[in-house]
Write a structure and sequence with these properties.
Shape: globular
CATH class of the largest domain: Alpha Beta
Strand content: 15-25%
Low-confidence stretches: 3-27
Distance between the termini: 27 Å
Helix content: 25-40%
Number of domains: 2
Number of helices: 14
Order of helices and strands: EHEHEHHEEHHEHEHEEHHHHHEH
CATH superfamily of the largest domain: Periplasmic binding protein-like II
């Protein structure tokens, strides 16, 4: 969900502009067009997959779900495998943009922990369209040398004493989810009064914010450029390794727990190759290799069993216990009208 750009790393894999797949691409030794978040796969895995299958990977990346969706919806670019987040998977299903996965071609699905398949049913009933790839939480990363006391509440990112030292997430659903949760409402609220309260809170926060960021929060926090930042859990693991003064917390009021998964667009032209790619990503050794590289939590139970680093294996950031998960909620797709409402209110916040 939530990753850094891979402009240089994957430039050799991206072939100019995507104009779709020709009929010659179809088949075991053809191509597979993959659209994923930046820095969300170990680049060696691409080579390994190509060497093992003879299928050429043509790779492109995006930074936000809302950037990805219009490209899939338009059909101008025909990707074979895409990795959206939970609520966006639900939207793509509702918009009839996805094709059901043939699990006869994805036998490694048995490596996915049933608990995550059950969670995925909230946005993909019957697990027909989506195979979980990574998951995590949203929380606060703070510098223990720059705050007055341990942070355990969203109140910290709305506190005037940290003016100029707050990095706020530049994402409409995440930002409103935080505000709604702090106010005691559902992060999937469709109530106009509650949304206006959340907007007002975010507008009050606006002059306190040093910068609205997604990817940049990682480097800024490592470098001590801010006291507090909203961050995705996978990034928090890396930042703590780089700067031991940093600490991550899922606030006591609650937060978002998200799942990103592999789906196949309905207009793909290499479905069997897409399923071969998804199956390969579910191999325990491959899932572990990706986890080691991106540090986002894996739903692959067989891969987790292979983790040798006990600190990571037992990390409450990578694998939070039930007490943390019990106060977290998954985003839902709220419909086109409500989606527009959220976007308009977010634009009003950013226009302050």
């Amino acid at each position: 969900m939530k990753k850094l750009y891979m402009i240089l790393l994957f430039s050799v894999l991206v072939v100019g502009t995507f104009t779709g797949c020709s009929k010659s691409d179809v088949g075991k030794n053809g191509k597979v067009y993959v659209y994923n978040w930046g820095e969300y796969i170990d680049e060696d895995v691409i080579d390994m997959f190509e060497n093992k299958t003879g299928i050429k990977v043509v790779y492109d990346y995006f930074e936000q779900n809302e950037e990805m969706f219009p490209k899939i919806q338009s059909g101008a670019v025909k990707y074979d495998v895409v990795c959206p987040s939970d609520y966006m998977v639900q939207k793509m299903i509702d918009e009839d943009l996805l094709v059901k996965i043939d699990y006869a071609n994805v036998p490694n699905i048995t490596n996915i922990d049933p608990a995550y398949l059950k969670s995925a049913e909230e946005f993909d009933p019957g697990n027909e369209y989506c195979v979980p790839y990574c998951w995590g939480t949203v929380g606060i990363l703070y510098n223990k040398t720059m705050v007055d006391e341990p942070i355990d509440s969203w109140s910290a990112i709305f506190d005037k004493k940290y003016k100029g030292d707050i990095l706020m997430i530049d994402s409409v659903r995440d930002a409103f989810g935080i505000a709604l949760t702090y106010l005691g409402y559902s992060l999937n609220s469709t109530d106009e009064v509650e949304l206006e309260e959340a907007k007002a809170l975010l507008q009050e926060q606006y002059p306190l914010v040093q910068a609205y960021v997604i990817d940049q929060v990682r480097d800024k926090m490592i470098g001590g450029e801010a006291a507090l930042g909203v961050i995705y859990s996978g990034e928090a693991i890396y930042t703590k390794r780089e700067n031991p003064d940093l600490e991550y917390v899922v606030p006591k009021e609650g937060s978002n727990v998200w799942i990103d998964g592999w789906v196949i667009p309905k207009n793909c032209q290499n479905k069997e190759n897409a399923e071969a790619f998804i199956n390969y990503m579910c191999d325990p050794e491959i899932a572990l290799k990706n986890f080691d590289f991106i540090t986002y939590s894996t739903p692959n139970a067989a891969a987790r069993a292979l983790i040798k680093d006990e600190e990571i294996k037992n990390s409450l950031i990578a694998f939070p216990d039930q007490s943390i998960l019990d106060r977290c909620t998954t985003f839902q797709y709220l419909g086109e009208e409500m989606e527009t409402t959220y976007i308009n209110k977010w634009n009003e916040v950013k226009m302050e």
